[in-house]
Design goal:
By secondary structure, the protein is of the alpha/beta class. Helix content is about 45%, strand content about 15%. The chain contains 15 helices and 17 strands. Helix 2 packs parallel to helix 3. Pfam families: GGDEF, Response_reg.
Length: about 475
Amino acid sequence: MTGRILIVDSVPTNRIILRVKLSAAYYDVIQADNGEAALALLRKLSPDLVITATDLPDMTGRALCAEINKLPASVRIPVVILHGADDPGERLASLAAGADDVLTRPVDDLVMLARLRSLLRARDAEAELQLRDDTQRALGLAEQGTAFVAPGLVRLVSPPKLPETKALSEGLAARIPDRIEVVDPEDALREHTRAPDVVVVAEAPGSSGEALTLLPQLRASRHTRHSALIYIAQPNQQREAASALDMGANDLLSSGLDLDELAIRLKKQVERKRTNDRLRANMRDGLRAAVCDPLTGLYNRRYAVPHLSRLADRATGQKRPYALLLADLDFFKQVNDNHGHAAGDAVLVTLAQRLKDNLRAADLISRWGGEEFLVAMPDADRTAAKRTAERLCRIMSRQPVTLPDGKQLTVTLSIGVAIGRPGHESSPLELIERADGALYAAKHKGRNTVVMADTVRPLTTRGQTPLAKTLSSKDDKEAEARRAGQT
């Protein structure tokens, strides 16, 4: 089934006809003959959408819509109200009461089914965003939005010199608090300073659906991808109206322009756009907080490990090498002990920025832990990786770090480098171990230097496990003690 729809109508024939049409479109249909029964089914079966007649035995369709909007639900349930006659006043009253759309009997099946698909798509998208937002809020990764709400931006796509366009712009400005902007159809896809909250695309009288071609382009454009789209069709353009909804329009005026109705629909779409923007921002910020180091802004280990797996798979498929650099600040403990932890943080932030400034956009830079940083370089052979690591050491040693108190401090790096080669079975984590062994050797070698993992020979002494270090047993213990206390 493509969704569960509740039909509310006191006339059995109306319910049966509508149920047959919806069932043929593979919807799961449930029915109620009055408002109270509908509310009971809403609590019990949680339908995805409600279609209600405007007149019910115990309440009006508008009253039922208001009761539905009061129900405690994580996602709002769309409501469509069916009217017996096309009365503009009743239509506006129903929309103002919270209905998502108003259809008039006899219902045009093409438009109705397109409208239901559009409403259910929007509901599913909002439900997914809300679910992710709720999860991140439970994890403490999202915050409540600010109470301040700036005016929205509504873009009207119409030739601005036409008198009708001027009247439309002025009429909307008197009805809504949002900013109105008029653009030519040729400029509708051009990126402006600010992305619009809503784009209104209207068919001119006598047109044959020319404005339809703009809708998929607006939905695909990076600038207007998340903008709400409202399409205004002429009364004889029912096929175009249905096509507009399937092409990405969020809302529709199917009987030509009505300023009061457009103002109500604009208000709803601006509010919905703001809600979705907030949910997307919370999700984006929450994801960033989960995978990024808060001090340096670099990716953390949680992000780096799966990224390395994808990098290794791609390198194998393309038969190209990749490099892993493990960099560690020398004598970092002394920085904290002698200058304070604020100075240590300044050193870490400075190193992170220098890594970002001196590596390629394709290179992954992550804070691996403490004062250790991991760099993953795709399409990098041994020569390129060694040259890059040596350049990073020079940059760090030749440019002192400015501490919070204004003092200058020279800090150096030790770097271990391991190369992943096509055809070899070493996993990314095994390569990191090899890079760590090379880093350990660089510390023993005197620091402020680079050691390649393929130059580090394991040493085995009697009674010892092989060590991937270029150290004797005695030197190994001394270096380990220095590393624990000074690096």
